[in-house]
Each structure stands twice: as C-alpha cells, then as structure tokens.
Amino acid sequence: xPGDRSRRHxxxxxxxxxxxxxxxxxxxxxxxxxxxYGHDTYTAAAIEKLRDAFGEQAEIFFVFSGTGAxxxxxxxxxQPFNTVLCAASAHIYTSECGAAEKHVxxxxxxxxxxxxxxxxxxxxxxxxxxxxDHAVQPAAVSITQATEYGTVYSLDEIRLxxxxxxxxxxxxxxxxxxxxxxxxxxxxxxxxxxxEAGIDVLSFGGTKNGLIAGxxxxxxxxxxxxxxxxxxxxxxQLSSKMRxxxxxxxxxxxxxxxxxxxxxxxxxxxxxxxxxxTLPGCRVTQPVEANEVFATIPRAYVTAxxxxxxxxxxxxxxxxxxFVCSFDTTEDDVSGFITVxxxxxxxxxxxxxxxx
Length: 356
Hints:
Elements: H1 20-29, H2 41-54, E1 59-63, H3 66-75, E2 82-87, H4 91-94, H5 99-103, E3 107-111, H6 120-123, E4 137-144, H7 155-167, E5 171-176, H8 179-186, E6 201-205, E7 215-219, H9 228-234, H10 243-252, H11 257-277, E8 283-284, E9 292-296, H12 302-308, E10 312-315, E11 320-324, H13 331-345
Parallel strand pairs: 2-3, 2-4, 4-5, 5-6
Antiparallel strand pairs: 1-7, 6-7, 8-9, 9-11, 10-11
C-alpha cells in the first residue's frame, strides 16, 4: 500500500479525495440544528435538483453506499424465487460479496460478454424457464453504465435492451456508479441515458465522482418506490444526519459539477491510454469511453510499475490491468507515470508482447 498520501494513483476513483466544492457545501450546512432523517430543507432542495436532472416524476432516495443502493434497488423488483440477469463482470456479481443474493434472496445469473455489455440476444437463452416451478423465474436485468470495462452503452443499446426486457415482463435496473462519466462521453443528459431510455430503477453514484459517501436510488416509476422508505430504513441505509449527504448532492448538481468532473476524468483516461499505447509491450484492450483504461502489460514489470503508481491487475492470466482516473487526476500525474514506465519497460527492447 502506498505510503505517500500526497501522491495520486490509478487504483480507483474511490481512492481520490473529496472535491473542494463538496467540502465547502458540507461546511455550509454544518451550523445549527435541523430535523433529522431527511426531514430538512437541505434534503428537500437537493432532491429537487436531482428531479430537475432525472425528471419531475422521479422518486429520489439518498443512501450511503453503492452496494446498499444496488441491493435495495433489486429488492424492489425481485423476489427470492427470482433471478436477476447481469453481465458476468457486473459489480453486483463479482464485487459485492453476494450482498444481493443474501439480502434479496434471489439468484444472480451471469452472462458472459467481451466488453461488459449485454443485449437481447444474450438474454434470450435465459428466458426459457417462465412457468417452470422447478426453476428460478427471471424478474429483472441489471446493466452497468459505464460498464466495469469502462465501455459505455449507447442510448439506442439501452432503449433496445429495455424494450426487450419489458416485452418479456422484466424490470431493468442500472448500476450507475459511473453514470456521470457515461453521460459525459455520450454528450447527453443523465435522464436520457437512464429513465428516458427505459430504465426502471437506477443506483446513481456520487462517491466515484468526488463525494465522501453518497449515492442515490432513483425510481422512474413512482409505484416501484411506494414502500422504499421502509426498505431503506430496514436496510440500514437511512442517514440520521441526512443534510450532510444532501449537501454533497447539492454541490454535485450546482454549476454541473458532476459533468465537469466526469469530463475531466474521462479526458485524463484518454490521455493515459494514448501514453500506454506507446509503451513497449503494452496494449490497450478496451475502448476508452469513460474514466477507465484496460491494458495488457508485461508480467515481469507489474510490481515495478505499481511502485510508480498503483493500479489493479484485472486478469491475472493475461496481466490485463485496470487504470482509473479521477476528478483530481492531472496531466502531470499521467505524463509522470508514462515517463517512468517507459524507462522501466525499455528493457523489453520494443517487444510488443509480454515476456514469458
């Protein structure tokens, strides 16, 4: 683990600090006494800002964590005898310690993909068990925008998938931990790539885009939200001092901070990818559409490169690495890493494949 806390790394956008505008917003509400559990004017104002972004019919609920948002979202659209279809790379399947399966009680059915995106063709084989009381019943599809591979669903892809799911009686959940980055890439609004494209319930991420700890569950069908206030309390995701989560979202939706930060982190990822492509033995493996870069690197140099700036190995077999840029990643961070990495990798003498 890096000891120099002043350094910035590519390990995750969760590694970054908190945006100064968010800190200022928290400080601004840190005075006096206000009602707890969201019954305050700060929370009401922040919810209205999100409704302006997602649609006036949207029902908004603030929670602490992305896992909490995903679990509680899926609880509204799945029963224990159901299955939720998702990409095999989906965070709910690979990285939440079985939280959905424990707390919802349902099964997650993973679908293999090359780039983290699923479509109706991949869903169809999993829709053959309706009415079979020996089989889990498909209830929902969960997609991630941007995906865990840093790729972005186009608006048409989401519309077609949502339409197919609804035709087959399935609800559609979106894990939008990096939805801001996806919208920045597409040049569209948050609503256009979620509710207006057919999504039923969204886990909207703030933590990866500069908040301390704040996510939102967004329902585009108010009926689905009818009992959610109770689910949130029972699911231990109701904040007593809600104004401090609300203040973070208020900052995020003031002067489009969410978009400014996402545009910046996306641009740093493109710059990093361009640099990595020039390194001996390295190859970018996925389109760079959000703030993540995936690249294979020579196995013999992984540790040395991680000592320069931390990143994660995504696939041990191929030494495919994941690099993530944040709102506070700088051009100097990128160029500094590339310069030192080039010196380290010069021993490969220009080889384009990792040594054995």
